[in-house]
Amino acid sequence: MTLDDYLYYVILPILALALLLIFYRFLKGPSIADKIIAVDLSITTGIGIIGIYTIVSDQSTLLDTAMILGLIAFLSTVAFSYYLEKRSRKKK
């Protein structure tokens, strides 16, 4: 089994299943925090898929896109935690 076979037949199905479970959590999440975490996790899974595609297609140009997505995911998580902190302070 080569690396390409391993990526196609093992890793990509696992990531696809993870995306389905993340989407379910996004739809059924009782709180806004669950939904934001699901979006953040879907971006992270997308970065993994981009990384696999980069390895398989031997094109390193998509790594810039993955880096930008990682930065957006990080900043959105920080902004959301700041929002939750401000909201909890107003309730007290």
Describe the structure.
This protein is mainly alpha-helical and 92 residues long. It has one domain (3-91). 89% of the residues lie in helices and 0% in strands. The protein has 3 helices and no strands. Helix 1 (3-28) packs antiparallel against helix 2 (32-57) and helix 2 runs antiparallel to helix 3. The mean pLDDT is 91.
List the helices and strands and how they pair.
Layout: H1 3-28, H2 32-57, H3 62-91
Helix pairs in contact: 1-2, 2-3
Structural class given helices, strands, pairing?
A: mainly alpha
Oligomer: single chain
Q: Total domains, how many? A: 1
Shape: elongated
The major sheet is characterized as: none
In angstroms, what separates the terminal alpha carbons? 59 Å
Helix count from the secondary structure assignment: 3
Rg computed from alpha carbons, rounded to a whole number of angstroms:
16 Å
Q: Could you estimate the helical fraction of the residues in percent? A: over 70%
Q: What string, H for helix and E for strand, traces the elements in order?
A: HHH
Low-confidence stretches: none
* Beta-strand content bin: under 5%
Whole-number mean pLDDT? 91
Q: How many β strands by DSSP?
A: 0
